[in-house]
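Let's do one together. I've listed all components of the complex below, 614 residues spread over two lines.
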Amino acid sequence: MKAGGLREGDFRIPSGCAVAGIMNEDGKRFNGEKIVQAISIMRERSNGLGGGFSAYGIYPEFKDYYAFHVMFDHEEGRHGTETFLQESTVVVKSEAIPIRKQLSMTDAPLLWRYFLEVPKSRLNGLTEEDYVMRLVMHVNDSIEGAFVFSSGKNMGVFKGVGYPEDIGRFFRLEEYEGYLWTAHGRFPTNTPGWWGGAHPFSLLGWSVVHNGEISSYGINKRYLEMFGYRCTLMTDTEVIVYLLDLLMRKHNLPLDVACLVLAPPFWRDIDRMEENRREAVTALRMIYGSALLNGPFSVIIAHENEMIGLTDRIMLRPLVIARKEATLYMASEEAAIREVCPYPDRVWTPKGGVPVMARLNEAAAVR
Amino acid sequence: MALVKHDARGLSFRELNERLHRLVADGIDIIDLVNVNGHRYIGTGLAKPVRLNIYGTPGSDLGAFMDGPEIRVNGSGQDAIGNTMNSGAIIINGDAGNVLGLSMRGGKIFVRGNVGHRVGIHIKAFAEQVPRIIVGGVAGDFFGEYMAGGRMILLGLDRRAGQPVVGDYVGTGMHGGTIYIRGKVEEHQLGKEVGLVEMTEEDYAVLQEDLAEFTACFNLSLPEIMREPFAKLVPLSHRPYGQLYVY
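Okay, and this is what the predicted structure of the assembly comes out as:
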């Protein structure tokens, strides 16, 4: 019996979700209480079958090492994974992720974190990131009962089955300080919800929280597989993370161009563009047709230097943005923002398919 | 007249709405709700002409299935405001989100600021029941989608430079009712089922009356608003999809 019982794909239930994000563009760090407060206001959008957070800037003392957060169904999974990590990296530190035992979370997996250094001699021509990506794919695909759910530097994902505010307390998020936090409250559509299937989904420095459904999952998955990504989680959101990693890290597209690939303008709008832009956008649609995300979605994408809010082109899922000085807020509902920032300088709804970005200022940016 | 002030902080939406229904049943006719933040369904199913003054950000489905009350929001609203409401008024000083007034059957919704996508989707009139949605700011895509009756008026006040009054796909699937938009609407912004027609004196008389009500609510100048021309949109057919599945 796997911990957590049924998994994605074993079962299907009909359909909602909450997303929230807060980023201080000066890189000023704040603890996890705010994001927990914000997401908890949207409780009706979740049903207790998944909650999670991503936090950036939380491991300054280990910022040069890849921080792996890993969940294990059993001790054998842990031993197998640790042996594999010791063979492939230098494990600088390993410890159980501190948790607060809560009665409502009796089926929690074993939760560990590892700070890893990749020896140059191991790369064999691969980039360091490609090497780490392969480690993640290997553990998730081949080691039974083990799942790496966070693998970036100076960042971490915390997630599980439960309401997000309970997951936040479980992981003691008030003890961490980050300059960028995102959160998710899950209402699983189509699947039962397990610890690994909760959002955020993350790879290297990327993390994504998502409300909606990616109808193009099958096409996106097959496309990603051509580049060595393995979609093991049976959940649509996973493909967004890998697509971003592919488009931005491997193909070096700038962020706004990557967003044009994920949510491209309709052909009727392309027809009305001036020539240069029309040609460029047409080329993107031709080359990256299989990377287009179809279906209703609002997502908050986070990376060490930026936070991006994006909805599908006709905004079938909500997203509200607010700014107060150097802090940008995003959420499914305005109330979530008002709960932690009662008087923003500006509140607005973005246009469907057009990304809204928060970026770390020059001085604070991570190189 | 009996007035009560009620603090919503710490209450779930269910507790808050149960208390509201109890207060109304007890004969209270003006209720001030303070510290509202994200509470859903406020005013749902209330069927007496009471007045709710909301301070804060009410949650989605504000005034759903409402029949008679007047709700004033001193702040902004979220999504699905006035869902299938039958009569009464919802007046919002700030902005409102997506699918405002969906399936509305009567009454009025006035928003001082901007609104999101799919506002007025499938609003419908019958006999003397004519729902009205008036928006002071700008609207997103699919304004008046599948509109079947009633009136929607969009003013585009306080726009930033270059900001369009309305998004794309205006009146897609529209087959009844009238949309008035102050300022310029381009042909490419329209859905296939809707057309621009000349404004008549009768139209201006209707606008004059509706907007007198609207401007009085928000302390705006009626003559100033009427100074700019309006575009009138009507459906091209009453059964746009009549032939869709006919072989």
